[in-house]
């Protein structure tokens, strides 16, 4: 007997990395071993020295194939056993370890858009649907496009054992969101990448593409973000730590350092309109969806909880955003 392991990794496509995967047949009972691939086909190597290494770091039941089959998330290494430059998970590991005693956890809201051909799902041929207003958390065929895919994706995430915590229809037709977390930095980032892979793979069976494009339609249509909710043990226990975290994200140099690593095209989405703060101005506030960082109203009332960094783009690398926030807030909270 044998089983199938789908090895998943993040490639070197610039400016936004893509997911890749391939299948290995394993003998019953065998652990997924280190494997390799052709890095010259993924922007991770030159043709004359093309081998790159896949090191399994997490595995999940495969909800697509079922049975004993698994999904295997990997880190990409060079043949000299150093992490490849595209391997941002390797940079998160030491930061997560350094601040582990603070018990940082994240919940990431992944917004995305379905496309059928060149149009978002639900956009009429050669025109535009009714303006935004009724679509967010809507119901009915006039407002909802792709719910069957969204439900199938949710079911697949649950079967894979991912910590998905909810879904909702978004402000633009064909635009949706799922949330992963709260989980530790490495867990949330690993699981978000796997949930993205499952999104593309699930939609594939419906003949539909899903995109993390942060501004899929120009003009008066909402962009797609990846609001990143964050807390440490101290923040879950008291308000002073909440304010310390908010302030630390605004200290000299930090707003720009964060924003330029919050996904490609962040300036196009963080315009100050469509529930965003301008990308070059840092602000935080209670219930304020026009601020860079929002303190949810319950958190202000309870004087403890978490904060929401609203700036990351839908196409952000979760290994990067969790590293930056863990480091910036963690350093301030340790003082
Ligand atoms: P929004 O009102 O911004 O749309 P959502 O319900 O979509 O909020 O997402 C809130 C996210 O915050 C969820 O992913 C949830 O897991 C996460 N979250 C809840 N509590 C915490 C916490 N203490 N620390 C970090 N994240 C949290
Ligand atoms: Mn080959
Ligand atoms: Mn949300
Ligand atoms: Mn949203
Ligand atoms: Mn949000």
UniProtKB/TrEMBL annotation:
SMART domains reported in the protein's UniProt record: Gln-synt_C
InterPro entries: Gln_syn_GlnII, Gln_synt_N, Gln_synt_N_sf, Gln_synth/guanido_kin_cat_dom, Gln_synth_cat_dom, Gln_synth_gly_rich_site, Gln_synth_N_conserv_site, Glutamine_Synthetase
Signal peptide start and end residues: none
GO molecular function annotation: glutamine synthetase activity
Gene3D superfamilies linked to this entry: Glutamine synthetase, N-terminal domain, Glutamine synthetase/guanido kinase, catalytic domain
Keyword field: ATP-binding, Ligase, Nucleotide-binding
This enzyme's EC code(s): 6.3.1.2
Subunit description: Homooctamer and homotetramer.
Family listed: Belongs to the glutamine synthetase family.
NCBIfam families in the record: gln_syn_GlnII
Function text: Catalyzes the ATP-dependent biosynthesis of glutamine from glutamate and ammonia.
Protein name (record): Glutamine synthetase
Species per Swiss-Prot/TrEMBL record: Streptomyces carpaticus
Lineage: Bacteria, Bacillati, Actinomycetota, Actinomycetes, Kitasatosporales
